[in-house]
Design goal:
Length: 86
Protein backbone atom coordinates (compact mmCIF):
# COMPACT_ATOMS: atom_id res chain seq x y z
CA UNK A 1 0.00 0.00 0.00
CA UNK A 2 2.82 2.38 0.83
CA UNK A 3 4.52 1.51 -2.44
CA UNK A 4 1.39 2.51 -4.34
CA UNK A 5 1.07 5.77 -2.39
CA UNK A 6 4.70 6.62 -3.08
CA UNK A 7 4.41 5.73 -6.78
CA UNK A 8 1.49 8.08 -7.44
CA UNK A 9 2.23 11.44 -9.08
CA UNK A 10 2.92 14.29 -6.66
CA UNK A 11 -0.47 15.92 -7.34
CA UNK A 12 -2.14 12.95 -5.56
CA UNK A 13 -2.30 12.90 -1.78
CA UNK A 14 -2.64 9.61 0.05
CA UNK A 15 -3.90 9.30 3.60
CA UNK A 16 -3.99 5.98 5.42
CA UNK A 17 -6.65 5.08 7.96
CA UNK A 18 -6.15 1.87 9.86
CA UNK A 19 -7.76 -0.04 12.69
CA UNK A 20 -5.78 0.41 15.91
CA UNK A 21 -5.85 -3.35 16.56
CA UNK A 22 -4.60 -2.91 20.13
CA UNK A 23 -1.52 -1.02 18.98
CA UNK A 24 -0.55 -3.49 16.26
CA UNK A 25 -1.00 -0.71 13.69
CA UNK A 26 1.92 1.32 15.06
CA UNK A 27 4.48 -0.14 12.65
CA UNK A 28 2.34 0.92 9.66
CA UNK A 29 1.76 4.39 11.12
CA UNK A 30 5.47 4.86 11.78
CA UNK A 31 6.55 3.64 8.33
CA UNK A 32 3.91 5.75 6.56
CA UNK A 33 5.04 8.85 8.40
CA UNK A 34 8.67 8.00 7.61
CA UNK A 35 7.68 7.88 3.92
CA UNK A 36 5.88 11.21 4.17
CA UNK A 37 2.39 9.72 3.97
CA UNK A 38 -0.22 10.82 6.52
CA UNK A 39 -1.59 7.90 8.53
CA UNK A 40 -4.07 7.71 11.39
CA UNK A 41 -5.58 4.97 13.55
CA UNK A 42 -9.35 4.81 13.82
CA UNK A 43 -10.77 4.89 17.33
CA UNK A 44 -13.44 2.28 16.60
CA UNK A 45 -13.03 -1.34 15.62
CA UNK A 46 -14.96 -4.62 15.67
CA UNK A 47 -17.51 -5.27 16.96
CA UNK A 48 -18.38 -1.57 16.52
CA UNK A 49 -18.07 -1.48 12.75
CA UNK A 50 -20.88 1.01 12.21
CA UNK A 51 -19.13 3.47 14.50
CA UNK A 52 -15.90 2.81 12.59
CA UNK A 53 -17.75 3.54 9.34
CA UNK A 54 -19.13 6.80 10.73
CA UNK A 55 -15.63 7.77 11.85
CA UNK A 56 -14.23 6.88 8.43
CA UNK A 57 -16.98 8.93 6.77
CA UNK A 58 -15.98 11.93 8.89
CA UNK A 59 -12.40 11.51 7.68
CA UNK A 60 -13.55 11.24 4.06
CA UNK A 61 -15.51 14.47 4.39
CA UNK A 62 -12.69 16.26 6.21
CA UNK A 63 -10.17 15.18 3.56
CA UNK A 64 -12.58 15.80 0.66
CA UNK A 65 -11.54 12.38 -0.60
CA UNK A 66 -12.20 11.45 -4.20
CA UNK A 67 -11.20 7.80 -3.92
CA UNK A 68 -11.41 5.25 -1.12
CA UNK A 69 -9.33 2.09 -1.50
CA UNK A 70 -9.85 -0.68 1.05
CA UNK A 71 -7.90 -3.86 1.62
CA UNK A 72 -9.51 -6.81 3.39
CA UNK A 73 -13.01 -7.93 4.34
CA UNK A 74 -13.40 -5.69 7.43
CA UNK A 75 -12.07 -2.55 5.69
CA UNK A 76 -14.26 -3.38 2.69
CA UNK A 77 -17.38 -3.43 4.87
CA UNK A 78 -16.45 -0.29 6.80
CA UNK A 79 -15.40 1.50 3.61
CA UNK A 80 -18.61 0.58 1.84
CA UNK A 81 -20.70 1.90 4.72
CA UNK A 82 -18.58 5.05 4.96
CA UNK A 83 -18.75 5.67 1.23
CA UNK A 84 -22.52 5.32 1.28
CA UNK A 85 -22.70 7.94 4.07
CA UNK A 86 -20.56 10.38 2.14
Amino acid sequence: MLGLARALPSNYESVFLTFAEGGRCQALLTEAQRCGVAAFALEHNAPHLRQAAAECARWLRRLKADILCCSGYKPDIVGWWAGRQV
